[in-house]
Specification:
Elements lengths: L4 H11 L7 E5 L25 H14 L3 E5 L9 H11 L1 E6 L8 H4 L4 E5 L5 H8 L4 H14 L4 E4 L1 E2 L7 H9 L8 E2 L24 H15 L9 H13 L12 E4 L4 E3 L8 E2 L3 H4 L3 H11 L7 H8 L2 H12 L3 H4 L6
Parallel strand pairs: 1-2, 1-8, 2-3, 3-4, 4-5, 6-7
Antiparallel strand pairs: 8-9, 9-10
Helix pairs in contact: 2-3, 8-9
């Protein structure tokens, strides 16, 4: 991430604001060029409209005024949008801007990615054959590894984002060592499948081959990452999150309440807003300020706090680290990673 002093000051002020949404995941497109075993997006690529460049920028202005700190641009593959360079450039002026890629587009769009604060490349294993199988595309592993190496060499803050599943969990610690030793951070995801009948944006595809079966082995991975965090940089997950995951998989404990439409929300390619991708849209990004403090939204927040439908790590993270206190917790936990993810530049 490349943060100017002006941007840091603006982000700091917003991070101290109460009753504001601080995290947004904007699924800019349903288009995707891969056929991942764990994902359902590519199965539902009927021609659909997307917001124009101007509309996305107008939406970003709404989010800035509402106090949002972080924007995650995803999809589909957001780099398949022809205007992604303009969107990244504008978003990065005001937000910590992260963009995801499966590794196929990053090198081609490297000029656009120069403006991003963080680029996350999906990469689940160092086994080329296994990864190509998981992504359903020959050459996917070579594309991802080349993307990580090229972006890192060019000074772009890039990390790898493995989705932990039954197929790769035994190699996660070696995978982590490989990249952190090279100064490349790791952002972990966990295989999940969608549990509701008609989510706003279908992502997780049920796959018995990927479903976690050995909970005790997974708990040992969380313990190993807690220990490794004390010794090295580049593990982009908080200790609180790791302990919560351990309790979840060993004992079924869910000590958090979902903070959808409070700490975070999602936006689909048409600008429709939902608490998360599993829920139905409740407004648009353009109308959001008018309803944010409404009784309707308070009722929805209460309903979401009682929701036990998923364990998606991003939603769990935003719920565990909600509000001002949560932002402070993240800073304290990730302080040692500042050198590798926050190279600053002056404007």
């Amino acid at each position: 991430m490349r943060l100017s002093s002006r941007k840091v000051l603006s982000l700091f002020k917003r991070s101290l604001a109460f009753n504001k949404p601080h995290h947004v995941q904007w699924m800019l497109t349903r288009r995707c060029n891969y056929r991942c075993k764990s994902c359902d997006v590519w199965r539902n690529q009927k021609p659909t409209a997307e917001l124009s460049t101007e509309e996305v920028i107008a939406g970003l202005n709404v989010l800035r005024k509402m106090g949002v700190i972080e924007i995650v641009l995803s999809g589909g593959n957001p780099l398949l949008r022809e205007d992604i360079g303009e969107i990244i450039e504008y978003a990065s002026r005001y937000f910590i801007t992260t963009i995801y890629d499966n590794g196929s587009q990053a090198v081609r769009k490297i000029n656009a990615l120069q403006k991003a604060d963080f680029v996350a490349i999906s990469l689940d294993t160092m086994n080329e054959k296994k990864y190509d199988y998981l992504k359903g595309v020959h050459g996917a592993w070579k594309n991802a590894v080349n993307a990580v190496q090229t972006l890192h060499t060019q000074g772009i803050t890039v990390g790898v984002s493995p989705t932990i599943s039954q197929l790769n969990m035994h190699e996660i610690m070696d995978f982590t060592d490989h990249f952190t030793e090279r100064g490349i951070p790791v952002v972990y995801c966990l295989y999940q499948h969608d549990t509701l009948e008609q989510p706003m944006f279908q992502i997780g595809e049920k796959n018995k081959e990927l479903e976690i079966m050995d909970n005790e082995a997974l708990a040992k991975i969380w313990d190993a990452l807690i220990e490794k965090k004390q010794k090295c940089q580049g593990i982009l997950i908080t200790r609180k999150m790791l302990n919560t995951l351990k309790g979840l998989y060993l004992n079924g404990q869910r000590p958090w309440e979902c903070k959808a439409l409070q700490s975070f929300f999602t936006i689909d390619p048409l600008g429709k807003v939902a608490g998360c991708h599993l829920q139905n849209p409740v407004t648009t990004v353009f109308d959001l300020p008018e309803v944010w403090n409404s009784q309707k939204f308070e009722s929805l927040r209460k309903m979401y706090r009682e929701c036990k439908s998923c364990s998606y790590m991003c939603y769990m993270f935003y719920s565990l680290h909600a509000n001002v206190q949560g932002n402070i917790e993240i800073i304290r936990d990730q302080w040692k990673n500042a050198k590798i993810v926050l190279p600053t530049r002056r404007h």
